[in-house]
Amino acid sequence: MEHLGLGLVLLVRTLAAGNPLFFQSIKEKVLDMAPTSFDDQYQGCIRMMEEELVELNRTEFAKNSVYAQYWTEAAAEWREREDLVHKPSALRTEHAVALMAYTLQERLYKEFNAAVREAGRSLREYLDSFHFKVLHFLVIQALRILHKPQTCFNVFRGVRGTRFTARHHDLVRFGQFASTSLNKEEAKEFGQDTFFLVNTCYGVPVEKFSAFPGEEEVLIPPFEKFEVTSITQVGKSTRIQLNSSGTFSNYNCEWVKG
């Protein structure tokens, strides 16, 4: 009996060492319209925002060391590859660097998306506490420039550690920048506790501007709205199918309104 107990302890230690997620519990989260998301589309104020960027970026670099560090790294990475990338003339260097920064390191996009999900809690929250204003604006503009109207993609998104719940025909948003893949097997590598099959008409392929082009990433903006068309359970995995249903934003041009 003593040997059996010791064997089980060693087995658990081995599993835990081989898989850091062995003891991770799965959270349940409702998929909804993400009401606290900062979802500005900057409609009608792009030029005014651009006039604010230099000073605003200087302020955010001082307040947000993670953003400052990875922006600098992304700019260096982009300089090495920009001559090899065919891009629309409207897509400027800062747009490309913003996409590169987003894809470069997990720490930046996780902190960025966590902030995006909460910055719409109030206008004051956005104005005073959201120190990713420039990155948010530039990524939104990059997606707008790269977006081809009436072009939709069927993509996949794997999630580890969270089981989303929703009801058939609900209207929902991711409420953040949602990374998806054109490659189903690639998406599975990111987790299968929840696995999304998504028809997106506002998501944009960004592999040319990604630090990891092999992921075949399509980036979906926070404001795209979806209808839940199917929810199924496949083993321990929740499969949710979403079809694009336009866009929805609570905010517009908030920084220049002051």
TrEMBL record:
PROSITE patterns registered for this protein in UniProt: TR_MART
GO biological process, one term: response to antibiotic
Protein known as: NAD(P)(+)--arginine ADP-ribosyltransferase
TM region(s), chain numbering: none
Source organism, top-level taxon: Eukaryota
Family designation: Belongs to the Arg-specific ADP-ribosyltransferase family.
EC number(s) given by UniProt: 2.4.2.31
Keywords: Disulfide bond, Glycosyltransferase, NAD, NADP, Nucleotidyltransferase, Signal, Transferase
Gene Ontology cellular-component terms listed: cytolytic granule; extracellular space
Chemical reaction(s) catalysed: L-arginyl-[protein] + NAD(+) = N(omega)-(ADP-D-ribosyl)-L-arginyl-[protein] + nicotinamide + H(+)
Gene3D superfamilies reported in the protein's UniProt record: Toxin ADP-ribosyltransferase, Chain A, domain 1
Any one GO molecular function term: NAD+ poly-ADP-ribosyltransferase activity
Pfam families, A to Z: ART
Signal peptide: 1-17
InterPro entries: ADP-ribosyltransferase_ARG, ART
